[in-house]
């Protein structure tokens, strides 16, 4: 085959340091848009972003040139810098993401379902805690 094609979708989940509720609803959409810009400027695509005050979900389409860890390192590092330079400037507390993250491969047939899930995070977390949600995601890997 002369050409190579790939289509890799990753559902990332990561939280603020110590799960502090630092991502206020008033600027969540700005943060997600900024993360989309980071992705675009680096050659990958943010398909959906969502979350609540203490964590974020991203659905990203990665090209073959990116590893899962490099993509999230760029998003977390640049968004943290932007938050501190813009929204947390002059505040005593600095914004930080927790070190780790979850990265879950998503098949083409699950894209719509995953997008809806990420869009509905506020509603979802009225019933389920972050810990319960994350454990359920990890169990899906094992099963």
Would you kindly provide a brief summary of this structure?
With 143 residues, the chain is an alpha+beta fold. It is built from 5 helices and 4 strands.
Number of domains: 1
Residues in helices, as a percent range: 40-55%
The low-confidence parts are none
CATH level 3 topology = Alpha-Beta Plaits
Describe the model.
44% of the residues lie in helices and 20% in strands. The chain has 143 residues and is of the alpha+beta class. The chain has one domain: Alpha-Beta Plaits (2-Layer Sandwich), CATH 3.30.70.1290. The protein has a 4-stranded antiparallel beta sheet with strand order 2-3-1-4, sandwiched between helices. Helix 1 packs across helix 2 (68-87). The longest helix is centred in the middle third of the chain and has 20 residues, at 68-87. The radius of gyration is 15 Å and the shape is globular. The termini are far apart.
Task: Give the SSE layout.
Blueprint: E1 8-15, H1 25-41, E2 45-52, E3 55-62, H2 68-87, E4 102-106, H3 111-119, H4 121-124, H5 130-142
Antiparallel strand pairs: 1-3, 1-4, 2-3
Helix pairs in contact: 1-2
Which tags fit this structure?
143 residues; 5 helices; Alpha-Beta Plaits; 4 strands; alpha+beta
């Amino acid at each position: 085959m002369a050409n190579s094609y790939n289509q890799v979708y990753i559902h990332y989940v990561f939280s603020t340091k110590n799960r502090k509720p630092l991502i206020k609803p008033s600027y969540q959409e700005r943060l997600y848009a900024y993360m989309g810009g980071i992705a675009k400027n680096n050659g990958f695509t943010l398909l959906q972003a969502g979350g609540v005050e203490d964590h974020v979900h991203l659905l990203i389409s990665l090209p073959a040139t990116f590893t899962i860890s490099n993509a999230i390192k760029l998003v977390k590092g640049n968004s943290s810098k932007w938050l501190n330079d813009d929204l947390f400037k002059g505040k005593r507390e600095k914004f930080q993401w927790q070190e780790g993250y979850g990265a879950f491969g998503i098949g083409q047939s699950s894209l719509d379902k995953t997008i809806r899930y990420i869009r509905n995070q506020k509603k979802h977390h009225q019933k389920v805690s972050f810990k319960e949600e994350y454990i359920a995601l990890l169990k899906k890997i094992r099963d």
